[in-house]
Specification:
The chain is an alpha+beta fold and 254 residues long. Helices cover 27% and strands 30% of the residues. The chain is built from eight helices and ten strands.
Length: 254
């Protein structure tokens, strides 16, 4: 049997990690009260300050809340499931962006803040996806996605220059109906997509813009969208707080 190495993290971090895992798995459900401090001290064989430090970490991450006279409980907000396919279809005529309509369906207010529109050298991953050189120019649009006026996701979308040139993709304004509709109208309907999902610590820009608590990783999705004959028409990087969201994929197995 393989030897399990000792966890080098501090005791408070270890306790926070165990409680966090139970919250995310639903074993400690939203709205439920945590055991008392004395009970947690006994359970983890530690002192009051260590328990308070662990709870403080989870409060700063948004998992817990405390109310005077009622102890500490799990916030009434489970991780939000993101279903990628819900955002892929072009918006119908007169409809809002899928980000906004999906937020409304969940009882939230969605908004999109356009940050940058530019022609720039293709990042390595984008260049590989498009089959162009790393010094070749692509169109880039970056946005900050908000839910209930709070930052939720940073998005960078890239488009081949032969598609974007002379279109709204290179204009610093919102695109009527969104980029999926524009691409469809240009003759490049989305047919399939591939997602690469990873986690890592946030960059300074991501940490500040998304208002992340300390020690929370980001969930990074790199998506490539293809049209007919599997031609890549869009590559998008999406970054969101790893502790607030989970990806939900659905498929049929014949």
């Amino acid at each position: 049997m393989a030897r399990i190495e000792k966890d080098p993290r501090g005791r408070a971090e270890q306790i926070a990690a165990e409680l966090r895992a139970q919250i995310l798995s639903g074993d400690i459900p939203p709205g439920s009260k945590l055991p008392s401090t004395s009970a947690l001290m006994a359970q983890y064989a530690t002192v009051n300050q260590t328990v308070q430090n662990a709870l403080g970490m989870l409060k700063s991450e948004g998992y817990l809340e405390s109310r005077k006279g009622s102890g500490v409980s799990v916030r009434q907000r489970a991780p939000q499931a993101i279903v990628p396919a819900q955002y892929m279809a072009p918006a119908s005529a007169g409809a809002a962006y899928p980000w906004i309509t999906e937020a409304a369906r969940r009882g939230q207010q969605g908004d999109i803040r356009l940050l940058t529109v530019a022609a720039e050298a293709a990042p390595a991953q984008v260049a590989d996806a498009f089959g162009v050189g790393r010094s070749d120019t692509v169109a880039m649009r970056s946005r900050l996605m908000l839910l209930d006026d709070e930052p939720a996701e940073l998005v960078w979308s890239y488009y081949p220059m032969d598609i974007a040139r002379g279109t709204a993709l290179l204009e610093r304004r919102r695109i009527k109906g969104g980029s999926p509709r524009l691409l469809r109208d240009l003759g490049y309907p989305a047919r399939e997509f591939v997602d690469h999902v990873s986690t890592r610590p946030p960059t300074p820009e991501e940490y500040v813009t998304l208002q992340l608590p300390d020690a929370v990783p980001i969930l990074r999705t790199f998506r490539v969208i293809y049209t007919d004959e599997r031609r890549p028409i869009e590559a998008t990087v999406m970054v969101k707080a790893g502790h607030l969201y989970e990806l939900q994929y659905e498929g049929r197995i014949d």
